[in-house]
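REQUEST ID: PR-0412
SUBMITTED BY: lab tech R.K.
PRIORITY: routine
TASK: structure prediction, single protein chain
INPUT:
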Amino acid sequence: ATGKKFVNYWLHNEWVMVEGKKMSKSAGNFTTLATIEEKGLNRLAFRMLVLMSHYRSPLNFTWEAVEGAESALKRLQTLVLSLPDGGVPGASHMEKFLERIEDDIDTPGAIALIFEVAKDDSLSPANKKATLLDFDTALGLGLADIKQAEIPEEIMKLADEREDARKNKDWKRSDELRFEIEGKGYIVKDTTDGPKVFKK
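STATUS: complete
OUTPUT:
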């Protein structure tokens, strides 16, 4: 159509399996992204699930697996939201990421590296964020586009009360308030700029 070469290679992933059988329309055991969203799950959770499996290996589709992938994705999104802008990607981490992608498109290894970077204290918070966002230009998890959800006033009051308890070194009350906040579907992350609240 363009008069130019389109690709050098075609790759076919292994089958997506459901209860030991290939997912297919003819078998009637297929799931769509719309169905995933109808269940209240992020469609990017399925992308995360696919990336956590090597394309040469069969992928066993279960709702538990999608929920687990969404949980991992939410942890990553919360981390990115909590980090400041203005950093530069870590050169050695970028090199490792490229090695994993060039090693037969090792996306499970690339995802594992993301969580290694998340725990790596040798990177400044801003550089950590820049590194994760750079990785995501290849992975497509939409990390650069996520926005902070509006936090209800009730939750913010609990967070302020918790911060007061921390300042007064009332660790027991601080923990109680943190558990209460988490029970309502939010988490508190203590940063150098003070506590920040995120939706789970």
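NOTES: DSSP finds eight helices and five strands in the chain.
REVIEWED BY: pending
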